[in-house]
Amino acid sequence: MSQVPPAWxxxxxxxxQTCPKKYEAEKVTKExxxxxxxxxxxxxxxxxxxxxxxxxEEPLDPRFIFIKPYLDKLKAIEGEKLCELKLGVKRxxxxxxxxxxxxxxxxxxxxxxxxxINGTLGWVIDYKTSKNARYADINQLAxxxxxxxxxxxxxxxxxxxxxxxxxxxxxxxxxxxxTGLSIFAELNEPxxxxxxxxxxxxxxxxxxxxxxxxxEVLSCGHNGRNS
Length: 227
Known about the structure:
- It contains 7 helices and 6 strands.
- The protein is α+β, with helices and mostly antiparallel strands and about 230 residues long.
- The chain has one domain: Alpha-Beta Complex (Lambda Exonuclease, Chain A), CATH 3.90.320.
- A 6-stranded mixed sheet has the order 2-1-3-4-5-6.
- α1 crosses α2 (about 20-30).
- It is globular and about 55 Å long.
C-alpha cells in the first residue's frame, strides 16, 4: 500500500541506506522495537550533563568530568549558546525553507547538540561517545550546517565538529553560505529510493555483515538467527 514518506533525519536515512528492510522493520511496521542499551543510556546521560554544564552554573556531573576541558573551551567562544537545538526544513514549490521541528510540513529534522551564533559566524558541535571515529560521517555535519543556514540567514560561515569525547578525536569541516545547501542535492539518490520504497510498499533487504548474528529483523530471509 502506497504511503507518503515521513520526515527524515540523518540517522533514519543512514539506516535506510544500510538496509531498507531493517528500516522498514524499525520505522514502518515497527516489528523491531527500540530498546535502551548500556551504550545509549550512557550517551543520553553524557549529553544531558553537557547541556546542563553549558546552560547553568551547576558543576559537571562527576561521571563526565573528563569532558570538562572541551566544554570549557566551547564556553569561552563568544556568542549565543543554544543546546539541543531542534531544526526543521520544509520544501515549498521546490525551495527549501526553515520551519518548526514539529510543523506538519517538515521534510527534514535534525537536533544539534550545541550551536553557537556570533554575528555572521556559527558553530555546530555534536558530542559522540563512540570509542573511535572510524565510522564518522561528515554528512551529519553538512546537514546541521544546511539547516542552520536556512534558520539564520545572516550566517556566512559555519564551523562544525564531531567531538568524540572518549577517543579524543575531532572531525571538523567548515561550510560557507554559497555551498551550504548542496548536501540535500548530494543525498537525492537515497532520498528518491526511500520515497519509491514508501510509494511501492517494497523495502528490499541489503545483505551485509550484520545479518548473520546481529540483525533483529527475524522476518528477513537473510537473518542468520533463524537457522
